[in-house]
Amino acid sequence: MSPVVWLDGRLLDASEARVSPFDHGLLTGDGVFETLRVYRGVPFATGRHLDRLARSAAVLGLDAPGPDVLRPAMAEVVEANRLSAGRLRVTVTGGPSPLGPARGRGAPTVIVAGGPMARWPETADVAVAPWPRNERSPLVGAKTTSYAENVVALAWAEARGAGEAVFANLAGHLCEGTGTNVFLVVGGRLVTPPLSSGCLGGVTRELLCELVDVEEADVGVEVLAEASEAFLSSSTREVQPIATVDRRPLLSAPGPRTAEAAAAFRALVGADLDP
Q: Positive or negative, the Cα torsion across 19, 24, 28, 34?
């Protein structure tokens, strides 16, 4: 069965959905998005994701629709695709625009799409990318469709046998992965880079900071390979232990703090799908 998507107010078969060749998201990466995991037929943490979508849109100056439009659209896509488990993506772009960086004056393009999700490995091998994140970028804190940097870094990591690339920032501090936040245990403390490092404020990261004892602190990127344990977090990976950093095994994967975080997150999912 062909997927059904929601495009600018209408449910359509994916084979019939059309976006303008002049869409600013396609031409310049002028767009924002959210990816949600679907559990038991319900997108998880919808309120937090839509709040972040609004913040990202504000950074770009996009006029994104609010929850009164997007929540029903998401529910329609889940129902139309009989999606009891999987992933859902909400994308808002600058819409049809003149060729070049200037955005057009029309309405944005809004897409909600869903589908199954591949199973992640039990542990992750990561590689430290040779390119830094710019913690001074005007896009810091926004989840945008300008993703080519992540595409290149992930392909670089995969060519080296890793499943995720991890970035330092311009200061040499640990920042984030291509689609993940990073947690590590240093001197018995569970630590994650602060938002000032330039990392995206992940929804799963935010929830874990509320669920377990974790400290936000700058650490050198080289400390990751020396950690006693570490893990990645994201909406689709949840809590994924890191097994190796640049092919160097960590002491344990999962370690006790990773197991604690994973258990706390699973308990939350079982109790509340919109925390």
A: negative
How far the first Cα of the chain sits from its last, in Å, is 32
CB 154 within 8 A of CB 164: yes
Determine contact, residues 232/127, Cβ cutoff 8 Å. Answer: no
pTM of the model: 0.96
218 torsion bin: left (phi>0), alpha (psi -120 to 50), beta (else): beta
Q: What is the DSSP code string of 170-188?
A: TTSBEEEESS-EEEEEETT
Q: Nearest to residue 107, comparing CAs of 194, 52, 226, 25?
A: 25
Q: In Å, how far are 5, 25, 92 from 145, measured between CA atoms?
A: 18, 7, 9
Other CB atoms within a 10 A radius of the CB of residue 147 amount to 15
Q: What is the 3-state secondary structure (H, E, C) of 30-43?
A: CEEEEEEEEECCEE
CA atoms lying within 13 Å on the CB side of residue 155: 6
Mean pLDDT of 80-91: 97
Q: How far apart are CA 219 and CA 192, in angstroms?
A: 9
User: How does residue 142 score in pLDDT terms, banded at 50, 70 and 90?
Assistant: very high
Which residue reads 């604690």 in tokens? 260
Instruction: Check residue 48 and give its pLDDT.
Output: 98
Residue 61 in contact with residue 46, Cβ under 8 Å? no
Task: Give me the long-range contacts of 224-228 (CB less than 8 A, separation at least 24).
Answer: 224/126, 224/128, 224/166, 224/174, 224/182, 224/184, 225/128, 225/250, 226/186, 227/184, 227/185, 227/186, 228/185, 228/186, 228/252, 228/255
Q: Which of 164, 148, 146 is nearest to 33 (CA)?
A: 146
CA–CA gap between residue 263 and residue 265 (Å, rounded): 5
Q: Is pLDDT of 1 > 90?
A: no
